[in-house]
Amino acid sequence: MDDAILTTRTLSFLDPKAEPREVDLTIFKPVQNEYSQWKVAYILGPPFWPKVRYGSSDNIPVAFIYALWVVSAYLRGTQHYAHLHWQGNIDCGLPDSAFRPASWVPPEITPPEPNPGDLEVFSSSTVSYPDEVGAISTLPFTVFMPKQSEDGRWKCGVTFGSSLSSSIYYGVGEDFIEAFLDAAAMARVIYDSQLPAGWKPAEGTGCDYLPFKVGRSYYLDERSAR
Amino acid sequence: MKKSFLGLLMILLFGLDPAHAQGGEVSILPAQSEPSAEFLHLYSSSAEDDTVANTTNGSRAPGHIGDMSDEEKERRREVCDREKEYCDDWCGKTKGGSACWQECMKKYIACLKAIPSRPIPDPDY
Predict the structure, then answer these.
(1) CA distance A58 to chain B (A)
(2) For residue B114, what is the nearest residue in chain A, using CA coordinates?
(3) Taking CA atoms, what residue in B is nearest to A95?
């Protein structure tokens, strides 16, 4: 695989003659510009327009999620939109924005696993939380590079605390993208569950930019600014 | 008609309705007093059902906006791309930071989603 490529996904659709066709979505590794803004670019293969577009943010996971959001918004405006899917998912397993319903129930969190200490880091950032006396502290938040397991499924680890020693929670999926989104959504649930009741992090210092999960679909919460 | 078009334009460009705009709602994005002529053209045509879509080769393809050619859709997307680049650049130069870039991204997605889709008919299974 080209060194510049982060991952790929193959989408399926039926052409007007009901012939099954496939199209490759290629996501490139994040690059940073002169303003310290991260950009994650993507391109779709034929029959889609051959143009590189990107998602951008000051934070790598957000730039990646935004790139997927751009793909979703782009596909919506194409004539093939109604016939596209990924593994039967008509949203192609890509995030869109939505209001999180009041009836939404967080997905169950899988128990954490010991940190092997040698996982490749995808991104490092921090989140804020109130310490015992109510002062605001920051905690490292690490997303590890999704990897394919021996059983063919993908796993993406996240941890709050030391990237070398803190326990790791794994998101799983059928490819890099799904495992990443699963881990990101789980990280948001874990973070929210650890906060004291009624306490909210300052804008941009929590995990509200991460998606929430409904079934096998992922959404960016319209209520949060992201 | 003109007023409703301006309202639509303001919402598409700035996420504001005209009342908010006149009321001085503070935005972290640049106050563009004059939207680009290209944007004005794009959104004035999309406000009409019986519009005529321009194509990149200069011909005019008659029909509803949903009949827009792939070339025309791509031209509109490129307008979205340029507005996004302008917005990002402004945020970078003014050190607007995370919230500013985030707002650019939201406007960009709204711009892309405004491009209509008329799906090809269901295949004859």
Answers:
(1) 6
(2) A77
(3) B109
What is the ipTM metric for this complex?
0.90
Residue A50 to residue A74: CA distance in whole angstroms: 12
| Identity of residue A213 | K
Distance from CA of A66 to the nearest CA of B (A): 8
> Do A143 and A122 contact (CB within 8 A), yes or no?
yes
Cβ contact, residue pair B123, A80, below 8 Å: no
Q: CB under 8 Å to A144, separation ≥6 — which residues?
A: A119, A120, A121, A122, A156, A157, A158, A159, A163, A168
Nearest to A161 by CA among A208, A125, A113: A125
Q: pLDDT (tens digit, 9 = 90+) per residue, A20-76? A: 999 999 999 999 999 999 999 999 998 888 899 999 999 999 999 999 999 999 998
Dihedral sign computed on CA atoms, order A154, A159, A164, A168 = negative
Q: Do B123 and A53 touch (CB under 8 A)?
A: no
**A214: enclosing H helix or E strand:** strand A212-214
